[in-house]
Amino acid sequence: MAGTSPIYRGNLHSIGQVGSLVRIPQGLVDLVATVNKVSITESVTDSEMTAAQIDDERGLRVELIGQIDRGTEQFQRGVGSYPGLNDPVHFTTSSDLKSIFPLSDGERFRAGCLSVDEDIPVTLNAEQLVVQHAAIVGSTGSGKTSAVSSLLQNFVKEGWNASNIIVIDPHGEYATALEDIASVLSVFADGDAQLRVPYWALPAEEILEIFVGGQPNKTFQNRFEELITEARGDFAKEAEWLDIDPTAVSSETPIPFDIRSIWHKIDAENRETRQVTDDPETACQTDPGDAGDLEPAQYEPYGPAGQPPNKGPKYNHYGNSPEHLRLGLLDPQLRFFQRPLGDPTGEDPLVEVTKGWLGGEKPISVLDFSGVPNQTADIAIGVVLDLLFELALRSDADGRGIGRPSPVLVVLEEAHRYLSDSADGLTRDAANRIAREGRKYGVGLLAVTQRPKELPATALAQCGTLISLRLTNSEDQGTIKAALPDTVTGIADVLPSLRTHEAIISGEAVELPVRAFLDKPNPWPEAEDPSLEPWRSNPEAPDVEDVLTSWRDIYQ
Ligand SMILES: Nc1ncnc2c1ncn2[C@@H]1O[C@H](COP(=O)(O)OP(=O)(O)OP(=O)(O)O)[C@@H](O)[C@H]1O
User: Which protein residue has the closest C-alpha to ligand 1 atom 30?
Assistant: First the structure.
């Protein structure tokens, strides 16, 4: 064909776009193939080339993917015959494409439209997408956050309005896009909108990592674990709603305990002076302090040159760690870990907490961790993933739990941060367990990342559907090419030149691998790049007073 952009029935057709489709008539059927590569043969040198030769040597490499029955106009995957030599190749028209790409129905929902023909919708199979895991990858600014927002908006709009979708939102980007269809829980909100991840649901080691950070004094750590085990056991004995053998409780069992009382006890041991070193009755306490208010107990200073008061048996054994723990407990950024506290006579507090994470009556829940230090947010996210997976694992298929009776989809923004080898141990294990085993128990994963290279190969291999936006880094492109089926690796060559919100979608949820424009979200997420307009139009110097006031407010 002469030229590459013919106009047919009023529409412009781009011939030979990588990712576009062609039709090859074969008797009663039309074979359909994807264009994988466009080339000019290298067998002729420039000097020998004539215009005619160049025309002759132009080539498309295509991958046969299916056939359309001319009678019924139905498309089916796979081909029954192969083209012969010199068979003509046609571009596909809108009506060909309509019979290839299924419309939204009770099983599929709209994701966007074909790049080569915006009138043809691209739909995704909801069940395959959710249960078989999926990944959305793309360099920064390629449109990942907007893509997730529009997919979720379309999904709910098209009828899946009682779903359990949990969006882990480390940067607070999704609230504006999803607030009509989601419950938004955030770390600094008040009341029911506050995101809560109780510290007592964590093993002792992680609790210390959150509140003390770094490497706490070893003696302190051992004593902390010992006291936690004791406190969890005592709670188990008392609690009416818990049916657990108190002697089987360890420092890791997720049973409530009061961390402030434990701090107060250890801190007092670290400061205690006594008249007689081995007689606790002779402690020289001047002020008992208050555990609830994090006020330390005070003691008389020890006497000079062996004079009483003497140092208590554990005086200064724990170094600065008790003080670091106190400061951690006072830190407003970590307050969301301190709620709810357990009440042995009340109800299981984890029931309310997990109901909140699942969004209550809303189909989506956004867990906004913005404002929390990365390392701490990562641990909290690990706890959420771990508990959700454990609940799904233990839910009966015909019960009222989550997982097999009602699948959960976890949307994991910045997935490389939680799945990679460098992630916190608890978080890495929880995220990888969902990637590996989630589909068996009805926990789906939608991993969103700008660094696919940093995802473990096993996690990417578990993703049945891959939505690849523009990728500019060659290592990331290599990872995605390796993850794509052999039939579409040619298409992957266009990854660096995709336009914003244009993607290659392949895998279980699509009929065929396609190059598509994903829909615009409405409303948009908080993903707009800041504008430089104020640099031209606003001559006043910035005033940060209000910002400082509201920042300080969180320390009240
Ligand atoms: N469907 C779309 N139509 C038009 N513009 C879009 C679309 N999707 C995204 N954009 C624009 O592209 C820009 C980047 O989008 P977005 O923040 O979603 O990308 P991202 O990959 O999540 O970026 P980052 O990794 O930096 O968070 C935004 O300014 C947005 O307005």
Answer: 528
